[in-house]
From TrEMBL:
SUPFAM superfamilies: Acyl-CoA N-acyltransferases (Nat) (SSF55729). InterPro entries: Acyl_CoA_acyltransferase, Gcn5-rel_NAT, GNAT_YJDJ. This is N-acetyltransferase domain-containing protein. It comes from the Eukaryota. Residues 16-104 form the N-acetyltransferase domain. Gene3D superfamilies: 3.40.630.30.
Length: 112
C-alpha cells in the first residue's frame, strides 16, 4: 500500500460531510467548510444561502460535496431547494442538472 502525502482528497477517501441541524448547515467534520441554509414555507423548503470553503481547501471539490449532501438531504426529506447561494445556482446546478427537479418553483419575486 502506497503512502500518501499532502492534504489532497482521493476518490477512496472523500471527506465526511455532516449535518449540523442546530446551526442549519452541512459541514466537513473539521467544521472549516460548510453550506448554510434557512428553512422556509413551514420547513418545506431549504434555502441554500451561503457556501464557504477556506482558501487552504479550495480546488478539492468540497463545495460540490457540500451541495450534494444538502440536495440528498432535501430529496430524502421531501424538501424543495432555493439556490440563493451563487455557487449553488451558477456553478453546482449547471454542472449537476440532475438536481434541478428539486429546485423550488415558486419565486415570489418573479415577474413572469
Amino acid at each position: 500500500m502506497a503512502a500518501t502525502s499532502g492534504a489532497k482528497i482521493t476518490a477512496t477517501e472523500p471527506p465526511k460531510i455532516v449535518w449540523n441541524a442546530g446551526k442549519h448547515r452541512f459541514e466537513t467534520e473539521d467544521h472549516e467548510a460548510f453550506i448554510d441554509y434557512k428553512l422556509r414555507n413551514n420547513g418545506q423548503v431549504m434555502d441554500l444561502v451561503h457556501t464557504y470553503v477556506p482558501s487552504s481547501k479550495r480546488g478539492l471539490g468540497l463545495a460540490s460535496l457540500l451541495c450534494i449532501a444538502a440536495f440528498e438531504h432535501a430529496s430524502s426529506h421531501s424538501l424543495s431547494v432555493i439556490p440563493s447561494c451563487s455557487y449553488v445556482s451558477d456553478t453546482f446546478l449547471p454542472r449537476n442538472p440532475t438536481w434541478k427537479p428539486l429546485v423550488h418553483s415558486e419565486d415570489p419575486k418573479s415577474s413572469i
